[in-house]
Design brief:
Elements (H helix, E strand, L loop, with lengths): L13 H12 L4 H21 L4 H18 L9 H20 L3 H12 L2 H6 L3 H19 L3 H11 L5 H8 L3 H22 L1
Helix pairs in contact: 1-2, 2-3, 2-9, 3-4, 8-10, 9-10
């Protein structure tokens, strides 16, 4: 397995790679679990705090995320997909917490969209055509994002969707700020190229 170097797309630092591999093959490995906890806890805390969680909520979310990660490690398809999976687990834990607290703006937006998707209302809405164009553009963007290299996509989503700083992204992904900048520059250039070709 080539999980060395930490700065190449889809790869991460060797100590984290070893802990992930050990826990995938032996889920009860205490040494690997402690190593993974030590490596992930500060990154997850920074991620949750950057997303607006207070210290107590951030700690609860870290615990919840790590519990899900440790219990699901044996089912992880590959070590290479670990960081994307970790981010998904963390994002879902935060979304669930916000929904319970009534703070989830995305859930409210989806409820509004679902309400406006009623056929009789959509037919009366002067914005129906504009929404259709926006939905199509969003679908094109999602396809373009899916085709980016994994690390570029991670950096771009953490920056644009989660509004993390370059330093926070670097800490979460275990890489340098310079590498994060490079991944973001390449991702943005690729998206600009794709959308300029579609015009």
């Amino acid at each position: 397995m080539a999980l060395r170097g930490g700065d190449r797309a889809g790869e991460f630092e060797p100590e984290l790679a070893r802990a992930v591999e050990r826990l995938r093959s032996a889920p009860g490995d205490e040494v690997a679990a402690r190593a993974l906890d030590r490596l992930l806890r500060p990154r997850l805390a920074a991620y949750f705090r950057a997303g607006g969680a207070g210290p107590a909520d951030a700690e609860d979310l870290v615990q919840e995320t790590l519990l899900k990660v440790f219990s699901g490690m044996a089912a992880l398809r590959s070590a290479e997909s670990f960081l994307a999976w970790l981010f998904t687990v963390a994002r879902n834990a935060r979304a669930t917490r916000w929904q319970r607290q009534g703070r989830d703006p995305l859930a409210r937006a989806e409820a509004i969209d679902a309400d406006e998707a009623q056929p009789q209302r959509a037919a009366r809405s002067p914005d129906a055509e504009r929404r259709s164009v926006a939905v199509e553009a969003l679908a094109r963007l999602e396809r373009a994002l899916a085709e980016l290299p994994p690390r570029q996509r991670q950096c771009l989503l953490l920056r644009a969707r989660e509004e993390l700083s370059y330093g926070e992204i670097a800490a979460l992904l275990g890489t340098s700020v310079l590498t994060v900048r490079n991944h973001l520059m390449l991702a943005r250039a690729e998206l600009r190229r794709r959308f300029s070709e579609e015009r």
